[in-house]
Amino acid sequence: xxxIPTRDRLTSEITTPxxxxxxxxxxxxxxxxxxxxxxxxxxxxxxxxxxxxxxxxPNMGECWGSGTATFLMLGDICTRSCRFCDIKHGSPxxxxxxxxxxxxxxxxxxxxxxxxxxxxxxxxxxxGGAPIFAAVIERIRQLQPGCxxxxxxPDFKGNVDALKMVMDARPEILNHNVETVPSLFKKVQxxxxxxxxxxxxxxxxxxxxxxxxxxxxxxxxxxxxxEVKAVMRDLREWDVDILTIGQYLQPSRKxxxxxxxxTLEEFADLKQYGLEIGFKWxxxxxxxxxxxxxxxxxxxxxxxxxxxxxx
Length: 311
Prior knowledge:
The chain is of the alpha/beta class. The chain is about 40% helix and about 15% strand. It has a single domain, classed as Alpha-Beta Barrel (TIM Barrel).
C-alpha cells in the first residue's frame, strides 16, 4: 500500500525555538522576469520537476532569470526524510522511463551549454535509479551536442555497480553532497551514512579519473568550524575537486532550526582554507548552493583538468 507523501508530516519531536533575526547580508531575491516565466512554463508543459522549486532554493530568481535550472529526476517524492530538506518524502511510484527524454528535450529547448541533473533518493531500488541518470546523460548528448553535464547523485548506499552506470555515461562533473559533519548525520539526515558519501566520491574518481568531482556542506546546524575543516580535509583526501559551502536556511518551522548564522568573514576564511589545502574551485558564501555558478566551474576547470591527465 502506497503511503501518503509527508512534506507536512516531519517529525513532531523537533523543538523549534523562536527564529533568529536574519542578518542583513542574507537577502533573497524574489523570482520574477520574462526568462523566469518562460522557464517555469516550459517545466510545467513537459511535466518536469526542479530542485530549485522543490527545495526552495534562495537563488532560484537569479538562476532562472539567467535561463539555468537544476532538473529533479526520479519523481518528486524522496524515500529519505532529511530534516533540512523541503522535498516531499514517502513511498514513490514506479520510475518514469520517459523522463530522460523530456529532460533532454527541455535542455535543447533552452539551448543550454551546461545542464545540472539531480534526483530524489530511490532506496526501494537496488540501483537507486542510476539507469535513469545514465539515460538522461546519453540523450542530452544526442539532442544537445556540446552541452556539458553535471549530475548531483544520491549516495546509492555505496553501491559501486549503480555508480558505475552513471560514470560510464561520462558526465563532466560528478557531484554528491555530504551536507554536514559526521557528528550531525543522525540529527540532520537520519537514513544517510558518511561512509556512503565517501564511497560515492572516492569510487567516482577511481572509475574515471578525468571526471571532476564535487561536494557541498551546509553551515548553521550546530557544527564547529574545526569539524567543517575536518570534512574539507576528508574531501580532499578523497580527491574531490570542487566544494560549495553555504548557510542553512530553515524551509519551515517544521524543519531543523538554525543554530547559527555565519558571517561573511567566516565564509571567506573557509574559502581561503579550502584553496590552501588543494580544492580547484571553492564557492563559500551564505546563499551558495550546490549548483551555484556550476556553468562557470566546468568551463574554467574542464580544459585544465583534461590537460593534466594527458601529461
